[in-house]
Write a structure and sequence with these properties.
Blueprint: H1 2-19, H2 23-34, H3 39-45, H4 47-50, H5 55-84, H6 90-98, H7 102-109, H8 119-125, H9 129-137, H10 144-149, H11 159-162, H12 172-189, H13 191-204, E1 206-211, E2 225-229, H14 235-246, E3 250-255, H15 258-269, H16 277-324, E4 334-338, E5 345-350, E6 356-362, H17 371-385, E7 389-393, H18 398-408, E8 417-421, H19 426-430, H20 433-438, H21 444-457, H22 459-463, H23 482-500, E9 502-503, H24 509-512, H25 520-533, H26 550-556, E10 560-561, H27 579-588, H28 599-609, H29 614-621, H30 625-636, E11 666-675, E12 678-682, E13 689-692, E14 713-722, E15 727-731
Length: about 725
């Protein structure tokens, strides 16, 4: 028990150091996680316990906790296995104890693993280990050839065994070679050597790429003759090289400081000039070229890929979060416009609540080019349904559709604007089981237009219906570890949903399933209960929902909103456990919870709350200062959507052509994607322009996310126009 405590202390200390937080914060958080609390719940309602750690830090803590626990478990397994073989030493115990990664533990365990048949295992079976010991000790003065004669066994074997090469030592050369094979494998399995070789490689190695076929055109031409030090290569280039190799456009190798590596091993192994020096030098070279180099190459490539994937997943998560938290456009009737050529553009009109009003298909694009009839039909819908906005998908035929819409709305009887909306994943959703349940009688193709319209109204509610990796705001998301990506993105969606809060009386099962403490089954049960019993009037009613017990209630209650219920506090994120304290707080400033529904009284409440002494009041109420601060914040903006602070989409009424652009032109655009080397910005032409990282700021920046996020509205200057490749270079230094 004491040993386990020591290991736990070590895990706590490691995480605290890595994250730059106190040991007590880590210890308390681990306890909360182990008790089954979710990260959003801990982040929002257990700030006193964690010392106010953010959801991002808490997720990193959870990931490291899982890794380090697996590491400790693997250490125990390795020690147990070596001990069972009777080969456990204090040195091995110490080496395992100080190992910081699973790779280091596996390197230590390497010599003790059950091996497949190798040259060394065959030599050991022939009884050549003692000869290998004599050679590696380098002390024997008797010529090695004389000693080796003792190991010739052919005369002692049965006629049957003489036919088996794996059993026969026929000559002196056979004996010596077998012994050297054992030494080569021992060198290869030495954890110390492997660690140092990897260190030297990461410090001095190069990644070199060559074309598989120099005459073949591809997206990887910059890698047809390319090299870069391993220590400098950025993650996006690793992933690009991996993809180019996978698609057989390029060949990849790692160039090593071979001389340094061999000198290092020779210094450690050789004991001056002896009769063994020459053969041992050859054996060290054999160990390196035949055994170490191929496996180290694999490990280095794997390490580089893992780090690049982790970074890509992080970027993808950040971008997705910004997209999910995009400002909703409330109170507007929206026309969803899903562009296409041959099959026609799908149109869906939804009212301010997301209800489908009308749908149709028009053919203003090639090959039909029926612009006039399309115009007539859509102008009629604009008039009939009082449409305020048109959401145009950014896929195939988007450009032509935008030009058509920009021209059409000039003739509309009411002011109409349009917005280009990312349609990533809309087709995935439209063909999904969920879309079929939502719109059983609506054609698959029309569902895509509904999704595009709804994304403008409420990005979060719509995007949760789609597989997160189909959202399309990262780089190489299909190349990275899909399990890791899914876990990361699920966390991002959970944090986003819980940050905004969910109206329990209107939310879909898809949205509810991301609320803290609610799984798919409970989400469906909530909707079913709502359908059978009418709107929920208070949070307590949730306890009547099948499978939603006290634990789930504690986790989810604060994130679920009841907008016109019995208790005004339930339009806020105030948790039921704090109702009593909140009512006492209001009483202290001369009001009741009912008063927060009254705008005039609310203004007075806000004024009074801004003057209170948080430290003294928290003691009086028996709650933490951070909890009190959150309660005051909630009472100051009951029912307010935090996304209202996010940049609103740019509304357009006209369209730019690439030909309209001139170098030096300053434009306003929306950031569509942030990647390692810059950001793509929608400036109203067909293709997004690229702001390279070097054009983002006058100051040095390590990462574009320091400056911009997906959804940001930014001013940019056109600095380069490549009409042939349809590319635009932009600068934010304007």
């Amino acid at each position: 028990m004491e040993e386990r405590g020591f290991k736990m202390d070590k895990i706590i200390s490691t995480i605290a150091q890595e994250l730059g937080v106190k040991n007590s914060q880590v210890e308390n958080t681990i306890k909360l996680i182990d008790e089954g609390n979710t990260i959003p719940f801990i982040a929002r309602y257990r700030k006193e316990v964690t010392g106010g750690l953010s959801d991002e830090v808490l997720r990193n803590l959870g990931e490291r906790l899982s890794y380090l626990r697996n590491l400790e478990q693997r250490k125990e397994e390795v020690i147990h296995s070596i001990d069972e073989q009777g080969k456990l030493t204090d040195e091995i115990l110490q080496a395992v104890a100080i190992s910081k990664t699973l790779a280091e533990v596996e390197d230590i365990y390497r010599p003790y693993k059950q091996k497949k048949k190798t040259r060394a295992t065959i030599a050991k079976a022939k009884g050549l280990e003692p000869l290998a010991e004599i050679i590696i000790n380098q002390e024997e003065k008797t010529p090695i050839e004389e000693i080796a004669k003792q190991y010739i066994n052919i005369e002692n074997l049965s006629e049957e065994d003489k036919k088996n090469k794996d059993k026969v030592v026929a000559t002196v050369e056979d004996a010596i070679q077998g012994a050297l094979d054992i030494i080569a494998e021992n060198i290869s399995d030495n954890a110390k050597y492997r660690k140092e070789i990897k260190r030297l490689l990461f410090r001095e190695g190069l990644i070199i790429t060559k074309a598989s076929n120099e005459d073949e055109k591809s997206n990887y031409e910059m890698y047809y003759d390319y090299s870069e030090p391993l220590k400098y290569i950025p993650s996006h280039r690793i992933l690009a090289i991996n993809r180019g190799e996978k698609e057989n456009f390029i060949k990849v190798k790692i160039e090593k400081p071979e001389e340094k590596i061999l000198q290092y091993m020779e210094r450690d192994i050789l004991k001056g000039e002896t009769q063994f020096t020459s053969i041992l030098k050859d054996t060290i070279l054999d160990a390196f070229k035949r055994l170490i180099e191929p496996s180290i190459d694999r490990e280095i490539r794997s390490d580089l890929t893992e780090k690049a994937e982790d970074k890509a997943i992080k970027v993808f998560g950040q971008n997705s979060k910004q997209l999910l938290l995009g400002a909703p456009i409330k109170g507007k009737t929206v026309m969803g416009f899903d562009p296409a050529y041959r099959t026609g553009c799908k149109i869906a009109v939804i009212d301010e609540t997301g209800k489908l009003l009308d749908y149709t298909t028009v053919y203003p694009t090639e090959p039909q080019n029926d612009v006039e009839n399309a115009k007539k039909e859509l102008l009629k819908l604009i008039e009939k349904d009082k449409i305020d906005m048109i959401a145009i998908g950014n896929g195939t035929a988007s450009r032509e559709s935008e030009m058509f819409v920009a021209d059409m709305i000039k003739e509309a009887s009411r002011p109409v604007h349009y917005v280009i909306v990312s349609e990533a994943g809309a087709s995935v959703y439209s063909a999904s089981k969920l879309a079929t349940e939502e719109y059983p009688d609506i054609n698959v193709s029309i569902r895509g237009a509904i999704s595009i319209a709804r994304r403008l109204q409420d990005p979060l509610a719509e995007l949760v219906k789609i597989d997160p990796k189909a959202i399309g705001v990262g780089q190489y998301q299909h190349d990275v570890n899909q399990k890791k990506l899914a876990e990361s993105l699920t966390g991002v969606v959970e944090d986003s949903v819980n940050k905004v809060g969910v109206d329990v009386n209107t939310a879909t099962p898809s949205l509810l399933s991301y609320v803290s403490g609610i799984n798919n089954t409970i989400a469906k049960n909530i909707v079913k209960y709502r359908d059978e019993n009418g709107k929920l009037k208070n949070r307590k009613q949730l306890l009547k929902v099948p499978k939603l017990g006290k634990v789930a209630f504690e986790q989810c209650a604060g994130f679920l909103r009841i907008l016109d219920g019995d208790n005004p506090l339930e339009i806020t994120a105030v948790h039921p456990e704090s109702y009593e304290a909140t009512e006492k707080l209001l009483e202290n400033v001369g009001f009741t919870k009912e008063d927060i529904r009254d705008k005039e009284k609310l203004a007075q409440i806000i004024k009074k709350l801004s003057t209170i002494n948080v430290n003294e009041m928290s003691k009086e109420l028996g709650i933490g200062e951070m909890t009190l601060t959150d309660i005051i914040s909630e009472l100051s903006k009951p029912g307010r959507d935090p996304r209202e602070d996010m940049p609103k989409p740019i509304l357009r009424s006209d369209v730019l052509k690439l030909e309209d652009l001139k170098e030096g032109m300053v434009l306003t655009g929306t950031v569509r994607n942030v990647i390692d080397f810059g950001a793509f910005v929608d400036i109203g032409v067909k293709h997004d322009g690229l702001v390279h990282i070097s054009e983002m700021s006058d100051k040095f920046i390590k990462n574009p996310s320091e400056v911009v996020s997906v959804g940001d509205v930014v001013k940019v200057k056109v600095i380069k126009i490549d009409k042939e490749r349809q590319k635009v270079g932009l600068s934010m230094k304007c």
